[in-house]
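sry for the spam today, last one i promise. struct tokens for design, 183 residues
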């Protein structure tokens, strides 16, 4: 009797845990815009999202760096959508080559770790030639973001030697963990 109850309780916990992992968080890319401001240095061949299911959207990018780069800066901002996009939570600038060598920024490190398995942009400077992101998506279990539910845009503006070269702006919607919120 007790062992049966124990089994039912454990099975219930297992289902609850599974439910939480699979259904509690929804993260979906909703838009991806790329633009080069200096096509003699960086060209985009494509930048697109591909929906493979209701909750899974893959991000692809293919570009070429026509000359080597060893001095790059990223200006990243996160905006929350509420009557237009408003700045929210994050606004920072990173020395890209120093970051790739030393990983000195813990927040960017988390984002970079999620991303680097899907890209050849995973080494230290200098960069040259094809720059590829292939079928990038976020798995639910990695999605404990400190955000409230909503629509967001992550704007990334890239500078070489302090001059603007291109933008990659990604919009996404995020629905937070309802089970976790009850605790
Ligand atoms: C990317 O977002 C920034 C910040 O809102 C904006 O200034 C820039 O024009 C956007 N770039 C593109 C290509 O839409
Ligand atoms: C544009 O790219 C070329 C390299 O092809 C570089 O010499 C030039 O300085 C860049 N222009 C700006 C404004 O960064
Ligand atoms: C990227 O685009 C270039 C130019 O269209 C193409 O030759 C190359 O095969 C593409 N690479 C990938 C990984 O799609
Ligand atoms: C970088 O990505 C390439 C191709 O995606 C892969 O073969 C290589 O092992 C990766 N390198 C690191 C250091 O992760
Ligand atoms: C990158 O280039 C800018 C503009 O030329 C310069 O001010 C800056 O010191 C350079 N940064 C590094 C790390 O070399």
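last one done:
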């Amino acid at each position: 009797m007790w062992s049966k109850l124990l089994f039912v309780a454990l099975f219930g916990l297992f289902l609850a845990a599974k439910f939480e992992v699979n259904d509690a968080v929804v993260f979906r890319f909703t838009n991806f815009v790329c633009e080069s401001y200096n096509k003699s240095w960086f060209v985009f061949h494509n930048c697109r999202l591909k929906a493979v299911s209701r909750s899974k959207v893959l991000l692809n990018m293919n570009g070429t760096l026509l000359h080597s780069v060893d001095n790059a800066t990223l200006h990243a901002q996160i905006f929350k959508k509420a009557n237009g996009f408003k700045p929210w939570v994050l606004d920072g600038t990173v020395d890209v080559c120093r970051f790739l060598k030393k990983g000195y920024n813990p927040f960017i490190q988390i984002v970079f770790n999620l991303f680097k398995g899907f890209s050849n942009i995973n080494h230290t400077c200098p960069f040259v030639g094809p720059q590829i992101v292939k079928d990038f998506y976020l798995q639910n279990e990695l999605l404990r973001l400190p955000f409230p539910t909503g629509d967001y845009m992550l704007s990334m503006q890239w500078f070489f030697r302090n001059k603007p070269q291109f933008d990659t702006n990604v919009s996404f919607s995020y629905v937070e963990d309802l089970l976790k919120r009850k605790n």
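Helices lie at 2-23, 96-102, 106-115, 178-182. ok im logging off now
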